[in-house]
């Protein structure tokens, strides 16, 4: 079963795994597709050798790819944990710099896959991983980077893993292929300034949605209004609707355009008309 073959640049997913063979094969597939698509590909894991071996079996000239810089395979100690701790803010800044470098080098995209077992080590800063996963969504919103965070459910506490999953717009699991129709896709827009949403926004991804809306307000640089285009949003539950309403009430003027009649009714029921600066527009 192909679990991750519908991923696109801009996606950031929590992938729960429980089988090493499947994990290594799927990761090799993501990296291989990226190499063929002229993307830069980055893999971080405790032991990159098995993944590289599977890439080689797919016909990739590993040494040449590593030497050219199109492929990077590193351990957490040389990536997330460089310096002996997890610096969440520094890592976010690193990905922004890496994006700019990839563009300058002519790559058409950047794919990042991380095995996240390092987070179970008692390293300084690991307690900020949930915050990092939420804020990391800003790295993906321009549609240039794809991120897959692989969490082994055999070793992560279920409650902890659930909180980490909530920080991602999308998810996949051992018997659950990634489905863009039921996941949330978030992209930045310039005209009008704001965000474009597609798929489904609900309790499972509300933290990712909130982080992105907060970020787009923080970085609006004089833009008077933030617009959320929800024309492609198939479904939004009460939790997602409350994220929108809270943003309008606390962050500034917000226009939500392209709403289905159901979403319009939900927002109005929850008090949209009482929030100054909030405009809700039907798209149907």
Automatic annotation (TrEMBL):
Q: What positions does the domain STAS occupy?
A: 197-284
Under the heading Gene3D superfamilies, the entry gives: STAS domain
Matching SUPFAM superfamilies, A to Z?
SpoIIaa-like
Task: State the name under which the record lists this protein.
Answer: Anti-anti-sigma regulatory factor
Whose protein is this, by species? Paractinoplanes abujensis
The cross-references to InterPro entries, in alphabetical order and at most eight, read: MEDS_domain, MlaB-like_STAS, STAS_dom, STAS_dom_sf
């Amino acid at each position: 079963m192909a679990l991750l073959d519908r991923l696109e640049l801009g996606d950031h997913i929590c992938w729960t795994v429980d089988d090493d063979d499947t994990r290594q094969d799927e990761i090799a597939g993501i990296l291989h597709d990226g190499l063929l698509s002229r993307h830069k590909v980055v893999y971080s894991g405790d032991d990159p050798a098995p993944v590289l071996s599977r890439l080689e079996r797919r016909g990739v000239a590993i040494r040449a790819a590593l030497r050219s810089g199109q492929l990077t395979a590193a351990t957490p100690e040389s990536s997330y944990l460089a310096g002996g701790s997890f610096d969440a803010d520094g890592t976010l800044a690193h990905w922004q710099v890496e994006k700019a470098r990839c563009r300058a080098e002519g790559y058409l995209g950047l794919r990042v896959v991380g095995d996240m077992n390092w987070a179970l080590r008692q390293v300084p800063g690991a307690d900020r991983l949930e915050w990092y996963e939420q804020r990391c969504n800003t790295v993906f919103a321009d549609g240039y980077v794809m991120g897959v965070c692989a969490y082994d459910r055999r070793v992560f506490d279920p409650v902890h893993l659930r909180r980490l999953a909530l920080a991602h717009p999308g998810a996949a699991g051992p018997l659950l292929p990634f489905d863009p129709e039921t996941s949330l896709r978030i992209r930045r827009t310039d005209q009008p300034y704001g965000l474009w949403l597609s798929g489904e926004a609900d309790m499972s991804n509300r933290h990712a949605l909130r982080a992105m809306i907060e970020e787009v307000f923080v970085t609006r640089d004089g833009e008077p209004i933030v617009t959320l285009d929800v024309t492609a949003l198939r479904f939004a539950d009460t939790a997602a609707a409350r994220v929108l309403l809270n943003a309008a009430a606390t962050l500034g003027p917000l226009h939500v355009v392209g709403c289905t009649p159901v979403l319009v009714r939900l927002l109005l029921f929850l008090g949209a008309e009482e929030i100054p600066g909030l405009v809700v527009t039907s798209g149907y």
